[in-house]
Amino acid sequence: MLAIAADHLRRLGHRQVTVVGVAAEAGMTHANVYRYFPSKTALVDAVAGRWLREVEAELGAIADAPDPADDKLERLLLALASMQREVLARDPHLFAVHRDATVESRPIARRHRGRLRQLVERVIEEGMNAGTFSLRDRERGIAFIFDTSHRFLHPVSIQLDVEVPRDLIEARLGAVIRAMLRILRIGTL
């Protein structure tokens, strides 16, 4: 059912996906779809959730790598920005579901945000324990990371920059990350 919904989303866009259409192609009634998904929004969010879990798994591998914490943090932020830009280019309708879920703070977006926070928190904790980061307040450090990278990681900002050359966006994000890491290392937070 999710594969069919994903295909409909890719071809038609999230506004044109219907529970009736997905059910018909799956050879069932739309009432049967509602047994698993309480609404069309829940159905398309489940499709986006599959992609977000893939993103989280890739980011988790970065967080679990044996690299120093500052390298991991840089790679994690660059990878998250890159994966979102890639899905915007490859599957704009899937990206639109992610964007809307984020803006509306739907459960799928809140869970994703929470998992991202846990990954960043693990890297920060590791960096503090190793002496790489000199933070007086771990929570302020985590908030600082998300605040400074927001412009490059939030789906609305990514969509607004769709026409900006990729190398320019990457250079800007790289500069922000270098400044962020300097602050995390010297501990002014």
UniProtKB/TrEMBL annotation:
A Pfam family reported for this protein in Swiss-Prot or TrEMBL: TetR_N
Keyword DNA-binding: yes
Phylogenetic classification of the source organism: Bacteria, Pseudomonadati, Pseudomonadota, Alphaproteobacteria, Hyphomicrobiales
Organism superkingdom: Bacteria
DNA-binding region of this protein: 18-37
Record domain HTH tetR-type: where: 1-55
Keyword Nuclease listed: no
MF annotations from Gene Ontology: DNA-binding transcription factor activity; transcription cis-regulatory region binding
Keyword terms: DNA-binding, Transcription, Transcription regulation
Protein name: TetR family transcriptional regulator
